[in-house]
Specification:
- With 354 residues, the chain is an alpha/beta fold.
- The strands form three sheets. Strands 2-1-3-4-5-11 form a six-stranded parallel β-sheet, sandwiched between helices. A four-stranded parallel β-sheet has the order 7-6-8-9, with helices on both faces. A two-stranded antiparallel sheet has the order 10-12.
- Strand 8, helix 10 and strand 9 form a beta-alpha-beta unit.
- Helix 7 runs parallel beside helix 8 and helix 9 crosses helix 10.
- It is elongated and about 90 Å long.
- It comes from Cellulomonas marina.
- InterPro entries: HTH_LacI (IPR000843), LacI/GalR-like_sensor (IPR046335), Lambda_DNA-bd_dom_sf (IPR010982), Peripla_BP_I (IPR028082).
- Pfam families: LacI, Peripla_BP_3.
């Protein structure tokens, strides 16, 4: 199919190529009568004219493209929300998004940065599929925005990450408000320890301290992986404690771990939430609402973070004013059916030992 050129539109409209160019690029277009501007735009649309972005980029030094580099694209449940949001914002503002998965390999990252710079992209987003510090490639251009990660050292460039501390605080406060005092933490056993694990434990301990509760060290257990079987084994360590010491609620590192906690509870003949309340993290669509009962959990704001990062890159919104350049996006609590007041032990006053 022959490409429609600007000269073809000019010929059909009976005006000069310069006039068409000025009108379609909205440069001094007001100098022409409204009827002329309308005729040119209508003809361009009817004829299927598409501007030559590369040629325009050579003139304006802007290509209306942006690049998104990510360590993972399709291997995590969080990628879709961030990428879809970035694509939506790019489209809303007339940009094309180039998406590159690097596998976290430094050589691949460096090659990808060079390739995107050769394409004269207007800016880049450097993304991670889990909250962590990163040591980015040296050639990332000024103005690069970091998504779900933040650069190490003194490189305080714009970044957005989930507020894992705030999300954990909301989860534990919800359990405390329901009357729980013996709250277990089913964590993840990884080395190095994930940033999310550190912050979620911090939130757990802060809220318990504010409630006047000194957590028993036995209440903090670690699952070998996030697999339900490993999480169930870790949770059973808690449930094997004497009834007077056993947690009445558990806060889980993520929804997969919470799934394992459900399994462990049922092995011990415990009902959720009547005998054991459970709160997860992540709000995974294939787990949290599908468990029986549906899981109360903390949502990770990946879609909101992807939108924020792209809007900052395009100048639609200002960068964060935090000293370290990092915006911590709120993680909302999603209440479902896995939390209730703690069980009352016969002969024990309500709240005793809780």
């Amino acid at each position: 199919m022959t490409r429609v050129r600007i000269a073809d539109v000019a010929r059909a409209a009976g005006v000069s190529v310069t006039t068409v160019s000025l009108v379609l690029n909205d440069r001094n277009a007001a100098r022409f009568p409204e009827t002329t501007r309308t005729r040119i735009r209508d003809l361009a649309r009817e004829m299927g004219y598409e501007p030559n972005v590369l040629a325009r980029g050579l003139r304006t030094r802007r290509t209306h493209t942006i690049g998104l580099l990510s360590d993972r694209i399709a291997t995590t449940p969080f990628a879709v929300g961030m990428v879809e949001a970035a694509q939506d914002v790019a489209r809303e503002h007339g940009r094309l998004l180039f998406l590159v998965g690097t596998g976290g390999v430094r050589e691949v990252e460096e090659d990808a940065v060079r390739a995107l710079l050769a394409q004269q992209v207007d800016g880049m987003i450097y993304a991670s599929m889990w909250h962590r510090p990163v040591d980015p490639p040296a050639d990332l251009p000024p103005g690069t925005v970091f998504l779900d990660c933040y650069p190490v050292g003194d490189d305080a460039r714009p970044a957005v990450v989930p507020d894992d501390l705030g999300g954990a605080r909301a989860a534990i406060a919800h359990l405390v408000a329901a009357g729980h005092r013996r709250i277990g933490l089913v964590d993840i056993d990884e080395d190095p320890r994930p940033v999310a694990s550190v912050l979620r434990e911090q939130g757990y301990r802060e809220v318990l301290a504010e409630a006047g509760v000194a957590p028993d060290p036995r209440w903090h257990v670690r699952s070998a992986t996030t697999a339900a079987a490993d999480a169930a084994a870790a949770t059973e360590t808690l449930l094997a404690l004497p009834p007077a010491d056993r947690p009445t609620a558990v806060f889980c590192y993520n929804d997969q771990v919470a799934h394992g906690a459900y399994t462990a509870a049922r092995r011990h003949g415990l009902r959720i939430p009547q005998d054991l309340s459970v709160v997860g993290y992540d709000d995974l669509v294939l787990i949290a609402p599908e468990l029986d009962p549906p899981l109360t959990t903390v949502a990770l704001p990946h879609h909101a973070m992807g939108r924020w990062a792209t809007e900052v890159l395009l100048g639609v919104r200002p960068p964060p004013d935090e000293a370290d350049g990092v915006l911590r996006m709120p993680c909302p609590l999603v209440e479902r059916g896995s939390v209730s007041p703690p069980p009352v032990v016969p002969g024990q006053r309500t709240g005793d030992g809780q």
